[in-house]
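For practice. Supply one:
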Amino acid sequence: MPRRLGPSRRIALGTACLVGMGAAAPAAALTGTDAGRREAGTDAGAPLASFVPGGFRVAQEARGPLDAGGTRDVALVLEARRAGRGGARARRLLVLTGTPQGGWVLAGEGRQVLLCTTCGAADRRRTPVEVAIGGRELVVRQSYGRRTVTQQTFRFRLREGRVLLARYEERTRVTATGQWARTSANLLTGDHVIETAVAGRDQTYDAFNDRPRTVTLEDCLQGAPLTGRA
């Protein structure tokens, strides 16, 4: 049976979203061509291609409704055309909602939530990123590492025109020892779960409730702590 951690042994959740650092970026700072930004402010929206900035291409696309109204929504993974040091290419995540006229409006943009194409990749392979829309959620999965493999899952929801992080899960495994840890957080309810084990033994489990948090897609930042619980 898993051991339950006492309050003094609760560890900080090292997730990938920055919290409490101010409001999301203003619309003028979001990606896309100037024409796309102007048209996005109209009822008709703008063509999808107008939101892809110069120097980027669409690497992945996921479509489906993100709210109960059944609107046309799309998530785009953008990838830089030009590689940086070590062949790395930056990635961005765009979420757009469709208009009745057939255009699109930008709902959210994550410039730092996705790992670059080679960040943490084993043997210089591509760092895998997957996006899907289902059950009115945008699900983003990515993993990195070789000796210590980390898998991240982000679940975003559309609320009042904003893309909010609803749930986050991180699984880490040390391949040589079998040690693993799982951290999950429900941002909407404040529920958290932490599990750890070493080679399937000495398993620990902790569940606690923290205050609910509002984290937008723009606020998501790799490597920043989600909570300071210790």
Notes: The longest strand covers residues 162-174. Residues 3-40 have pLDDT under 50 and may be disordered.
